[in-house]
Amino acid sequence: MPIVTPRTIPGVLELLPRDQIALQSMFDTIREGFESFGFLPISTPAMEQTAVLLTKSGSETERQVYLAQSTGARAQGYEPDAALRFDLTVPLARYVAEHEAELIFPFRRYQMQPVWRGETPQRGRFREFIQCDIDVVDRDELSIRYDAEMPAVIASIFSRLAIGDFTIRLNNRRLLRGLLIDLGVDDSGLQGLALRELDKLERIGAEDVAAALSKRGIAADTADRLLKVAGQGPLKGAAATEMLAALPDGNELLVKGKEELASVFSLVGVQGVNPDQVALDLSIARGLDYYTGTVYETTLDDHPEVGSICSGGRYEDLASLYTKSRLPGVGISIGLTRLFWQLRELGMTGTTANPVAALVTLIDEEGFETALRLATELRTAGVNTEVSMKAGKLSRQLKYADRAQIPIVVIAGADERQRGTVQVRNLVTRVQQEVAASEVTATVSSLL
Amino acid sequence: MPIVTPRTIPGVLELLPRDQIALQSMFDTIREGFESFGFLPISTPAMEQTAVLLTKSGSETERQVYLAQSTGARAQGYEPDAALRFDLTVPLARYVAEHEAELIFPFRRYQMQPVWRGETPQRGRFREFIQCDIDVVDRDELSIRYDAEMPAVIASIFSRLAIGDFTIRLNNRRLLRGLLIDLGVDDSGLQGLALRELDKLERIGAEDVAAALSKRGIAADTADRLLKVAGQGPLKGAAATEMLAALPDGNELLVKGKEELASVFSLVGVQGVNPDQVALDLSIARGLDYYTGTVYETTLDDHPEVGSICSGGRYEDLASLYTKSRLPGVGISIGLTRLFWQLRELGMTGTTANPVAALVTLIDEEGFETALRLATELRTAGVNTEVSMKAGKLSRQLKYADRAQIPIVVIAGADERQRGTVQVRNLVTRVQQEVAASEVTATVSSLL
Fold it and tell me: Which residues of chain A are within 8 Å of residue B359 when distances are taken between CB atoms?
């Protein structure tokens, strides 16, 4: 007698096979993109020591960390000493610090794994979601050229994903801090707070940001001048170049930031990225003080409401919590689960082919061995093939293939077997052809 | 100042990129094998409701389940209501019961995800390990033909993995129970206990099994007769057929079990599996009472000490805890993490190629744009390519490529640029050739 209601925990995305295939296809495409730029895979355990994940910052994220403890340890009254990762950056920092002596630097890694956060469940917020990250980390110093490589990777991946036109928005936090200094905001803590407010510009509008800045203690005319410069939206091509040239040379940070951005723009072009896919957006700050230089966000041109689908930036020191080595880096992250969910909401995920390419039908019991042999031949030729194990009406098996979106059906009924032939039916074009049994693999392969 | 020692939790396998590439390559190969037989992917959340995972059986496994709870919920004094899956079978049962109305039956799914158990850490025992499972589940009834498909999948995958000769050992629990009845053991509980002891035969030997059976209350001569039949080790080809034919027809279970085994053997052959890769082994019982008919284990011929690398069996009802529907199925599981670890211990994992196929070097700063363009061309042609971002001595860059196992190095120094050529160096054969810049992609592709 059933005693437990079968359901997932709240706040997770569980998919039927058809959607899982579409998600997995996006996953594979992202991985291919990462690998094409020479990034190497790592994978870290889901659990880290609590000391690694909980740094007593008292942040929202820390309240959402999942502690993990075996039922046996709990029964004995121990405190949990492990927890589930909430991002891939903290595990990367721990990994690089732990294996520093064995890694080859610059260390170029990709990592595509789920992370967990105890969010309050709501539409589009998940407690488990897959992050797809790349980072380049070096010792002591990392050339700005790596900052320019990130947009090339982003452009390559989102072109491959074919989910419409996109814009990679670039900015530089050094430049923003320089701007604030130029406007008289010298306190670096206040600069950080101001950038956090500025980052909300697109979401909440200039008026609200100005109000928030004023609350932080920034004078109204300073806020106005900042918003006038930073609030021009994404600028492409010549407009971006002009904007950069027009910025003041007020201080060292501003000059450095401008130079860095100019380098990134020029090198992105050399890597063959379409200039229409890259924009300067001086309002992008990324909330985190963790980032120090270049910052990235990526938006879909036709669906700005989706928000950033790939973000990241440059940081000065990855692993200061674990090692004395200075490890600067730059990285980006794609939140795959949320992206997939949003694309599905927009009806943009339905086109992935079933990995099962052929169904070998079974009309009469006597044909079973023939069916098995045909399937084996097809598989050996690289065609993913399912066999009907139960003899039955062809119409029912065609309906099954149709429903399961298997494009090719192979039929070897008693008549065909006597003639030494096979029917190959293409469910997409509805064309059926009778071919010699020896030709079945070539015929099916030519249709795929 | 570093304050936390960077280390993983105990009992997990964390790999350097080179090993991760090898593991990932095995993962991909297994996935290709599953897909070639028409299995569809699913993925379930790491966490399940505690009610799904903890069924108050009081088993060893239940003491090892990891409870998961957010720090926020814990601070508020709640009990954990989620836990991490400890296998992929329980989540499959919950998944099928939850989505039954939306699934197409027979439901053929593969699932390749980590599971967690709070084991006492020791060599070769892991607290996190990847399981690679397939199952076919149908409603009410499932043909024995699916039992014969499993060895075909196993043979296909381990042939692709190329880790040496292997033997798929087949048995049938119905037959074993029939044998016990024939020997006078009518109590089905006692039969289950006896099979659990018999299963240890290869590990602990006939004497110890006989002693354990006697402890369970089975008469010494009954145990002897059971061990005489079941203890003949793996039998292949004609020996297996003779053994099956020689078994008594003592009762219905015995007859049914013999028939099922004979069907499986004959259909495995039709699917082109090499008869040397399949054996009858009447000592295999799989500890679990969960299995009812066919059972499988797979061993490496040259490394029997590794134990079973792929096991599974037929079960009567997958999800009785969650649904009234009767859902018989058959499945197998590969414990990838442990298998990888064991192969590495045996020195059998070192041959996987680096996914990065080419390094474009940088000798002088003026060559940077050329290097970026060459890399973009190579990537566009499908060659995974890394670029040196820092100009420097060629010897140092060659050493880096060698250490990172990147097989091809592309060099466009000042001389080559003036001549409109590129040097393509094969680090495997140590052959270097100078080709026209326009030929670089074709040349590199031909070398891979």
Answer: 38
